[in-house]
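# nightly structure sweep
# worker-07 picked up a monomer target from the shared queue
# config: single-sequence mode, recycle default, output format = structure tokens
# input follows
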Amino acid sequence: MKTTRREFLLTAGALGAATLPWPALAAPLFESIFMFVPAAPGGGWDGTARAIEQACKTADLVGAFQFENVGGSGGMVGLPRFVNQRKAQANAIMVAGSVMIGAAISAKSPIGIQNVVPIAKLTEESGVIVVPNNSPIKSFAELVAAFKADPRKVPVAGGSAGGTDHILLGLMLKALGRNPKEGAYVAFAGGGPANAAIIGGQVAAGISGYSEFEEQIKGGRMRPLAVSGEARIPGVNVPTLREQGMNVVSANWRGVFGAPGIQAPQRAALEHLVSAMKDTAGWKQILTTRRWADSYQAGSAFEKYLAQDVADTVGVMKDLGLA
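# output follows
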């Protein structure tokens, strides 16, 4: 019986599959990742951790994620737990950022960000200064005038004492020639209570990352007066502090860290995972959607950045009377 060309190709393919070595399907870089978030669910660090999970799983970089959230004191409740319980665990990563540096300094904690292994800085988010929509303060110039008159009469809501929001207020007051210690800073453990205090008029203004206030701004419950980054946030028509005559730039960075005691090859594997993730289409879409600036740094560049940030933060914290 005559064999057709199609039958010949199908037969050859079947024989080849049985006799020739075929490349295996690409395996995930990690079968599982233990993700530690030293903050309560729903905040900026938790949102970053969940975004990492989404991007990694969509790109098949990681098989599964296990999460643990331990909130409190700008990360200083959770950090010692991660350091002590996850020592030398090669698949453990922690999401943290600039808030933890100030929190450790103000708490005079013996355990700080220097006790974990820097893997990569991922994002930066500009702070935004807001007032309640019904506030008598209608512009940034009017807020500046109130600060100049008496900053103690202008309570400002934000995150943990000594965190990025508190530091930004100190920098603003210093730029106006006032003592940063005069700032009436009201610290909140989470975005929900801070939002309620601002909208309810319990404070005169608020500071946080734009994403924390975005829903309230879009809903007309808060009025943004300025953002603290080098440039305006894409798609957000709010001028920077510099545009409005105040020479202050500040951003809240977030990154990932490995457990203490991991070996160089284990650190390299985590760095490779994060590098692969940040190049995925899924991660790039997340950056756009959440208005996060891509500030990826790894290796020695990230270590140098951390050292400088710690030194700068110590200086500002001394001005605030917190160091």
